[in-house]
Please model this.
Amino acid sequence: MPRPKTLADEEVLDAALAIMRKSGPEGLTFAALSAGCGLSASTLVQRFETKARLIQAAQLQAWDRLDRLTAELAATAPKTPQGAIALLVGLSGDYGGIESYADDLLILREDLRDPALRARGAAWRDVLSAAIERRFARVPGAPSGIGLLMAAQWQGALLWWSFDPRVPVTEFVKQSLERFVAALVPGAAAVAG
Model:
């Protein structure tokens, strides 16, 4: 079968992310990507220049998608503590099963190594924390900074789930966050509706 002459960057970068999830960032080579997307390795080198730039472009595309999903969920989740839980549960659905979650940790490592990707993570943290914070604006006794606290609880819940993934990740996260809100803001249940 002949190679395609063109392929949108989005499709190429999706193929790159798939390779990184399966084989880790070390497994992403121009030859492997060529086999995965059908473009010649030389075309891919012309487009992305180096492996580091290819990885960064794939990661930035993933951040763009996470930003869009976060914005969509924040736009639709009620401005209540239960809405904050729904937002974070919605973000948890993308992790899939334990194998997918574990593979994504290799990709997270690349985010931590690259200053531009770390900056994207920090910016997302701020957006997510603010979105959560807005859901507690009318809750008496909600502590200042609850957005970041709850985001940290969510990340911890994902990690603890990964050690014992007997229940779906979304159910584990939901239960964990409900306990967190009940413990930190006892009056939150009264304004959940």
Notes: The CA atoms of residues 11 and 89 lie 27 Å apart.
